[in-house]
Structures are given as C-alpha cells and as structure tokens.
Design goal:
Blueprint (H helix, E strand, L loop, with lengths): L2 E8 L6 H10 L14 E8 L2 E8 L3 H9 L1 H4 L5 E7 L6 H18 L5 E7 L9 H17 L5 E6 L12 H4 L5 H9 L12
Bound molecules: guanosine-5'-triphosphate and magnesium ion (MG).
Length: 202
C-alpha cells in the first residue's frame, strides 16, 4: 500500500490556498481562475511514483475555522506537513490571521507534538511589489509577531506568489526525491527564481 502523507493548507479566508492547489493540479496557470470560498475542507490526492499526498484545503471563513479548532482530532491528527498562509498584502487582516495561527499552534503543541514539517507562506508577494515598502513592513509585522509568540516548532518561512508559478520542477527532481514534501514543492514553484538556489531542504 502507498504511504500517503497528510498535508494541511490553512490560513484565513482569501489568502490563496485553493489557488495554489489548483496550480499544482493543472500544472500551468495561463489565467488565474476565479475561485469560490472553500466550503468546509476539500481533500485532493496528488500522486507521484510511489508517493501520494492527501492535501487538505481548509476553508478560511470563520465558521469553518472554529470547526477545525473545536474538532481538531478530525482535522489535525496524523498530520505530516502544515502549511500556513498569510496574505502579505492585506495589512488589515494580519491580526486576525495571526490569532488563528496561534490557536492552531497551541493545539498542535498540546495534542500533536510529533514529527510535523511546518511552513509559513507570506503569500501574494507579487513580483512587482515584493520589494516595496508595504510588503517589507507587513513581513516585519508577521515575523515580529512570530518571534514574540515563541513558536515551539521549527518553521520554514518564505514569500510566495502565484505570479511566480513555474512548473519546471514538477516533472524533475520532486518526483525522484522521496525526501521532498509539498512545502518544498511550493517553495520551488511559487518563489522568485533567485531563491531557488537553496533548493533542497527538509
Ligand atoms: N495578487 C495575488 N492574488 C492571489 C494570489 N493567489 C491567489 N490570489 C487571489 O486571492 C483570491 C482568493 O484566493 P483563494 O485561493 O480562493 O483563497 P483561499 O485561501 O482558498 O480562500 P478561502 O477558501 O475562502 O479560505 C483569489 O481572487 C485569487 O485569485 C497571489 O499570489 N497574488
Ligand atoms: Mg479556498
């Protein structure tokens, strides 16, 4: 039987979770499709060779977020990778986003403190604004909040955008290297090319 890894993509509403999954599935993004807010949680299976990933796309609307936290045993158990998205463009939602992040981390720390890979995406860092004052400022706000909160886990953090999407990696190393997970794949496909020098990490 295949070893299926469970990956959760989460964050508050409209941060771009479903769009990333659609890009991974369609393998190209000529146009960014309009997506509706995710209702509840959608699961997608991505298989490569002997490996399969069950990707859980958590709806970011408040009523679903409350359900995931209250019924965490249904949603967070047996987790292999957690990918948390912030919308780095939307300053007004950073506080709400960080609160949700803290709640998830607390639950994982208390109930599921095992071998999970953690990633934070500072998403919507689009090419034309990635170096702007606003993006740098929001990045600082998020990183400072994370530092203050003293997360008990080791996170990989990177700035991503759908506009960097590049599928050159899909059919190559990722499928051959059994150590690489979905967080690593997202980094490869959705960050500026210059970043991809430090390609492989765990
Ligand atoms: N500028 C910009 N917009 C993006 C990016 N990624 C996604 N979006 C847009 O953000 C909006 C929300 O995207 P979704 O993928 O539906 O967000 P979501 O996190 O799944 O939202 P919920 O299902 O409500 O939790 C859409 O209009 C996307 O086109 C990005 O990298 N940059
Ligand atoms: Mg969605």
């Amino acid at each position: 039987m295949k070893n299926i890894k469970k990956v959760v993509l989460t964050g508050i509403r409209e941060v771009g979770k479903t769009t990333i999954i659609n890009a991974l599935l369609n393998k190209n993004l000529d146009i960014i499709e309009k997506v509706s807010p995710t209702k509840g949680c959608n699961r997608t299976l991505i298989s490569t060779g002997d490996r399969s990933f069950s990707i859980w796309d958590f709806g970011g609307v408040l009523k679903y977020r409350l359900r995931f936290l209250q019924q965490h045993f249904r949603f967070f158990s047996s987790l292999d990778e957690l990918i948390y998205l912030f919308d780095i463009q939307n300053e007004s939602l950073l506080f709400e986003s960080f609160n949700y992040f803290k709640n998830i981390i607390r639950i994982l720390d208390i109930f599921y403190n095992h071998d999970i890979r953690y990633y934070i995406l500072l998403h919507k860092a689009d090419p034309e604004i990635i170096n702007s004052f606003k993006i740098r400022k929001n990045e600082k706000i998020i990183l400072t909040s994370i530092d203050r909160f003293a997360i008990p886990f080791n996170f990989k953090i990177f700035k991503t955008s759908i506009y960097y999407f590049n599928n050159h990696f899909l059919d190559n190393q990722f499928y051959k290297d059994e150590k690489l997970g979905i967080g690593c794949l997202i980094k490869e496909l959705f960050t500026p090319k210059a970043n991809s020098e430090n390609k492989f990490f765990n």
